[in-house]
Structure formats: C-alpha cells, structure tokens
Amino acid sequence: MRNILVIGSGKSTSYLIKYLLDKSESERLYITVGDLSLSKAKKIIGDHPNANAIPLDVFDVTSRTEAIENSDIVISMLPSRYHIEVAKDCIAYGKHMVTASYVTEQIQSLNNAAKNKGLVFLNEMGVDPGIDHMSAMKVIDRIRDKGGKMILFESFTGGLVAPESDNNLWNYKFTWNPRNVVVAGQGGAAKFLQEGKYKYIPYNRLFRRTEFLEVEGYGRFEAYANRDSLKYQDEYGMKDIQTLYRGTMRRVGFSRAWNIFVTLGMTDDDYTIEDSENMSYRDFVNSFLAYSPTDSVELKFRHALKIDQDDIVWDKLEELDIFNPNKKVGLKKATPAQILQKILMDSWTLEPDEKDMIVMYHKFGYELDGKKYQIDSTMVTIGEDDTYTAMAKTVGLPVAMAALDILNEKITTPGVQIPILKEVYEPILNELEEYGIHFNEKEVPYLGYNPLNQ
Amino acid sequence: MRNILVIGSGKSTSYLIKYLLDKSESERLYITVGDLSLSKAKKIIGDHPNANAIPLDVFDVTSRTEAIENSDIVISMLPSRYHIEVAKDCIAYGKHMVTASYVTEQIQSLNNAAKNKGLVFLNEMGVDPGIDHMSAMKVIDRIRDKGGKMILFESFTGGLVAPESDNNLWNYKFTWNPRNVVVAGQGGAAKFLQEGKYKYIPYNRLFRRTEFLEVEGYGRFEAYANRDSLKYQDEYGMKDIQTLYRGTMRRVGFSRAWNIFVTLGMTDDDYTIEDSENMSYRDFVNSFLAYSPTDSVELKFRHALKIDQDDIVWDKLEELDIFNPNKKVGLKKATPAQILQKILMDSWTLEPDEKDMIVMYHKFGYELDGKKYQIDSTMVTIGEDDTYTAMAKTVGLPVAMAALDILNEKITTPGVQIPILKEVYEPILNELEEYGIHFNEKEVPYLGYNPLNQ
Q: N or C: at which end does chain A have fewer Cβ atoms within 10 angstroms?
C-alpha cells in the first residue's frame, strides 16, 4: 500500500477524499486524514477500510512530523499560510507535496531543496488557480507548437449558484469562503494590459468597469478585473502579449449593486465599528449616511447613491433586509466587512439541496503566418448538493489526481511548481473529462480587445 | 545672552526666525540656525549680529549633540519623523524643546523623563495643530468656568489662496507640502460623532460629503472631514460631547472636482505606473480609462464620470491641461499621486507676489442651566508674499512665542504636551493678536448639527 496523508478535511475535500478512497483498492492506497477536529476527519472517511482519521494540529511538531514521516505523499488542504510548516517537513523526510494554494515566497524558497531531493512540490492544483492554468497552457502550447504567437489572453472564472438553485435577485450565493467575496478587489489597484496599453482601476471603480461574456447554454455573465493579471505574462511565457486580463465572473447586474456597498464603505476591513454588537442592520447602514433625523435611512440612502425608485438595485438591497431595525448585528468589535458578511450570509447561504456552479472562460488570440486568430474556451461544472459542490469537485479532483500521478511516476519533474507542464496538465485534463469537467473550444474571428472597433 | 537653536530653515521658518531676531536685543537672544544646507540657513538670518548659521545633519551625532548642548532651548522644524533624535538629546542635556508637529508615540514615551528633569516639551505649536488647540481651549475653558457643558465641537482649518491672488477655477493653490494635499484623506475611513451617532466616510466618499461654512467678509467655504476627529474627545476632555467633527476647508466646488481624481485612482500612492517617465499628461489620464481607440480620451472621461458638457468641473480639468498630449510626465517609476502632484504644481504654485490665506472656523455648542447655546469663532490671516506666507506666520509665530515664554519662565509645566493649558494659550493668543492673528467670536442660536431640523 502507498500512504497518502491529507491534512485538513474542510469543505473543499469531499471529492478529493472520495476520489482517493474509490481508487484505494485498484491503486493500493491507504489514506490518512488529519484534522484539528478528529470527528470531522472521521466523518469524511466513514468506515472505509483503506483509510483512517487522526487528530492533527499543524503546530504540534511531534504529531505532524510523525504523520508526514509515515506517508509517501502529503496533500495539504490547510489555509495557505500554514503550508510552510508541512512543506519543511516534506523536505526533511523526503516526501512529495500537493496543494491548491498560490505559491508564496516561503514555499518558493524551498525550490532548490526540493529539486536536490527529487521531490515534486505541486501547488495551485485546484480550480482557480489550477484548472485555469492547465486548460490555458494546453491551448497556448498547441498554438506555439504550430508556430503561432500569443497576442491576447483573457481568462475569467466564477464560483456561482447553479441555474436551478438561482432564486435571488443577485443571482449569487456563497460557495466558498464568504470573507474572500466581501473583501474581493481590495489591497491595490487592478492592473492589466489592453492592446499594449497598461490600464489601472482603483477599488472604488472596479465593479463599474465590467466586461460581458456569453456562455452557450448559460446566458450572459459579467466579469470584474483581478488585481494580478500581469504576473501571468511571466508564468505562461507570453513576452509579446498585447492584451492580458484576468477577471472574476458574476451574473450581469451583481457588480453594479455590489458597488453600492463599496461606495458606502461597508466592505472596509481596516477598522471596527463602535458598539457593533448592539446595532441593528439599519443602524449599520445609517452609520455610513449623513446625520439627518427627520429623513428616513431609505431616503438618505437613495439620495446619497442617486438610486431611482424603480431601479432594480433597490430591490436587491431590500431583499437583503439591510434596513431592518430589529435584526441585530451581534458581533463584538466587528469591521464593516464582517458585519456585511453576516448580513449577506442570512440570504446567500446554499441550502443543503441547492447546487453551485463553476464557470470558466478563456480567450486566446494569436498570430500565425501574418493572420490573427482567436479561440474561445469555456467550462461549466454544476455541483450535486451543498457538500459535493462544483467548487469541491474542481478544487479536489485535480489535487487528488496529481497526487496519484506523482505516486505513479507520471509526474516526475522535481521542484516547486504550478501545473503548466504538459507532463502535469495532459493526464489530469484527460482524466477530468471522465468526471464531466470539459472545455468547449471554438474558433472565433479575432476581435482584439474592442470588438466594436473592428 | 540666551541661546536658541532652530533646527531646519525651510518654508515655515521665515516668520519664526524674524520674530526671534527682532526680539534678540530686548530679550538678549542669540539664535543659531542649523540646516543640512548651510547657505539656506545663512540666507534666512542675513547679516544679523545676534545670529549664526551652522551646517547640521540630524543624523550626524557629533555636530547635533554639540549644537544642542550649547543651547538653552531647541526649536525643531524638521519633518516630524526626525524629532526623536533631537528630543533624546534634549533629555540627555536638559534642554526644553518646541515643535509644530503632532506628538508621536516615540515623543510621548519621553514624557516621564522630561518631567523628571523639569523640561517643557511643547508640541503641536503651529497653526493646525497649534492655534486651533489654543483658540478652542480658550473658549472651552471659559464655558466650563461658568458651569457650561460642552455638547458640540466642530473645527475647520484651511490653507488657501488669498482672495486677491485667487485666479484659477479651483480657487486653490499650494501653500504647504503639495504631497500632503494630493494624498489627503487616505489611509482609512473618516470617523466622527453627530448628535451622539458615530459616522464613517470611506475615502471614495470623503469629498462628496462636505459641509458649507460662511465666514463674514470672505464668503462661502466647504469642508471635508478629517480622519481623526474622535481623538479630540480625550485631548480636550469633552466626555459627553454629542457632536465632534474636524474638517479641512476649501472654496466651494473644490471637493466635487477633486473627487474626480479620487474616483479615477489618480491620487493612489501605493504602486508605480509603467514607463511613467515617457508618458504624456494625456497618456496618464488615459491609463485610468477603458481601452477604446476610436473614442477620444475626453469622451471616455466624460462618460466614465458622467460629466455634462456644461459642467464647471470640466473647465477645471481643462485648466490643468491634463489632456495635453505633448507635456511629458518626466518622472521615473512614479506613483499616480506623484504624477498628479507634478501636473497640479504647473497650475497651483504661488507666484512670488501672490498671497496665501489661513482660515479657521470653530463651533462650540454647550448647555448651561438647561438651555443650549452656541459660539462661532473664526480667524482669517492673509500672507504678504510667497515667503512671508500666512502659513509661515501662523505656524512660526506661536512656535517662536512659546520658545521665548519658556525661556522667560511664563510656561513652566514640564513634560510632553500640546498647547491646551491656560498657562500656554493665554499669553500666546494675546501676543498673536498684536500680529493680527485674531478670532472673531459671536453668539449664535444653538442649531445642533442639522439646522434644518430645528
């Protein structure tokens, strides 16, 4: 038997562990799931004969090193900042490692050590980052192999609610860490390239400069820019790229309404609100509006944001019950972002029988023999319920497949890396197809960034 | 002779040094001016017999300690972050110290040492902070002395251009560090109290939630909120205050136009613009607008900000020449804020014969014998030219007066402090009157925060 240690048994590990357990007989795998909560780890493996659950505190050196030493490969599904403890042990005991998280400087600094020991440290193996890298590099490599030169790359991902469970005016529910949704876009201007021009969008404009995207069979989406588009120029080796833009997808209309929270300051996470515990939702809203006791909070709100009475954004706000004077915030020393998150979770939490959806959209523009071409590639995955979500599937399956491919020596290139090598993306994308994770490609006329100008 | 060491001979020291030189015979003063630039220090003292200029690098321990040891009192007009080096020496050699800067934690930590040695460390002795503290505490103490209870305190200061030199559409010129003007309001939400309610304004709304103020003889002004209003509750001892608001004054219309720069992201100081050196003013503006080569930068700008053709803000923007394709930025690796500052300095620099203006406006609301009262107090000071500015006068004179009062043992309370003690503000405010710095007080009906509700 080959021993796989999975650290963490949170929301995103349902499919990951199911995949490994399903393969445990044929592939002779023994799965150890370690979590701070032993009961959580036990629950996820059930009574499977090829698995056991252990209590694992990543800061308890003895139990951590023992578990790592006894494994052949380690999958860390902990929050990103904890990976480094695990990674150092993997170097010390000579174990491969897989994560779904962005490569931090700390992890990158282990590159030489991993290479010297012949260890594969494969990161960004989830959906975004993960499947986006693999599906993009597959097309980019194909374009390059036939002599094409990349001139445009745009890539969009959204974690959304499936059409069959889409029953609120925002067309949105939380399918991932709600906190990340509330503070999305903060921390600096978004920066990208459009037809050779660098463009910058500050946070307060981010949700007003969206693009529209049409996905066959699923209708229209919008996307706002991610902060970090330019780093993909190096990562994907696209030196001469003219347009480089990465974004986050929402249903059309989400961003315009979300921008209201941004404008009022309700997404701020840098200070705490006085007496937040005892304030009502209405008090919270009022604290961002001018003092004027003879005017209603509603009128002050409409006036400040210039919202017409018949504007749909108003219905979106009312749906969230933000003007309720009786619902209490109930959070001590909370930031505006924490309070807003609490209010949104009342409305945007997936019910047990509801389904989520992952949508991905890539545009590849290239030049070949003096002509310009474009390929659009889209992927949609729908979840089964609130445990076997599309998010857990698209994050967990590639991680699990990568771990198995490393054990089976299909993936052998050592060092700290992300899934941009053919050795990694080819077998995994093929296997993901078997699980219904499929990209639709089509050739479209090259429109460049601004189709209206062609 | 008593030896006064003045460290720094920048813009704000013209009146300070003139005052001390003028008093040097009658008060037996000898003034030593130390500056990194010996020629600058020499220029400011001229050939006055009771003064000398020395080269002084605050990080050169030998020359710094020697100069401090030879003085009876030290005035530090250095940028705030350098005071601590001087302050430590003042403790070591037993010298009093005066600055015009906010008390930092480092300076505050010397409080006990200063007290133990009987040294006066008087800070925030300029105009704002400085004259605002003194003029406010004078009224607050008077109200308290007759048994009144403070319920409202609003205080506004503006460094502006004098009416006779007010010849641009913004009604504004730089009279102080332009950088501070460009990044004003950044770093966190503004927080204040209105009729017992805490209110918060994020940066992107700060310049849209102004108040109007009328100053007799000078017309209408507007004010946007400062970040730190609440700290004055402790500093001035106003425990039960219901309304507490501090703001920065501009001429009406400035903030609405300024908000355009904020909205587009042009005041951001956290990242650098690609190839900033070679871009034109027009390129700079365009980098914050959508890519659309068939549309003019002007139209994209108007559309993004929803600016009507006949809106005066458009004329304000054109006056700054921001759409000029030929003027180059010429700054390497510059942030948006640095580039904007450069563009503004083309238009907003005070000419040698032009005059600046300091305006201050306090509102004091109080309760006495069950009735509510209000006192409004205003001060306007006009400069003489671009050297003897109102800014230099209102910053420099109180600093100089305080130094002399300490030498003459009129101010004796030891420790790190700001000018809120009667011992400090009474003689200095009286003397400032002689120099034309005068507050007009009037009793007005108590209106509370929102006059329309009365």
A: C
